[in-house]
Write a structure and sequence with these properties.
Blueprint (H helix, E strand, L loop, with lengths): L1 H32 L17 E7 L2 E7 L6 E9 L7 E2 L3 E3 L4 E7 L4 E10 L4
Antiparallel strand pairs: 1-2, 2-6, 3-4, 3-5, 3-7
């Protein structure tokens, strides 16, 4: 008689554990099935900004930026020179209209440590 009670107790405990593990999955699936009642997804922003390729040769930096999007992008080349006495430089901002490609160049006296382009689209503050 005792072994039957133990088996029944073990089966009951296993069923409760299985139900406890399956409940979150069922709730998650029910939430996905009733997707019409949930909040709508946030709209994704329109793509914007020029695509820039930057190359460094010796002490010279060249950035070519092309804007394939319908909004104007304002790009600026930043050059950091390797030597402490060499002056780092920021180019003047250049507007890249839709469908336009611009070239921005800069240089250091000796070696370039790094160079990058920053963007400011027409929608940015």
């Amino acid at each position: 008689m005792r072994s039957t009670r133990r088996r029944t107790g073990a089966l009951l405990a296993a069923a409760i554990a299985l139900a406890g593990l399956a409940a979150p999955v069922g709730i998650s699936l029910a939430g996905r099935a009733g997707g019409g009642a949930s909040t709508p997804a946030a709209p994704s922003p329109e793509p914007a900004g020029a695509e820039c390729l930057t190359s460094v040769r010796g002490s010279r930096v060249v950035a070519l930026c092309h804007n394939p999007y319908p909004s104007t992008d304002r790009v600026q080349l930043h050059t950091e020179c390797r030597q402490w006495w060499d002056v780092d430089a920021d180019s003047a901002p250049v507007e890249v209209d839709p469908g336009q490609t611009v070239r921005i160049d800069d240089r250091c006296w000796k070696q370039v440590a790094s160079a990058w382009v920053t963007h400011r689209t027409q929608d940015s503050p």
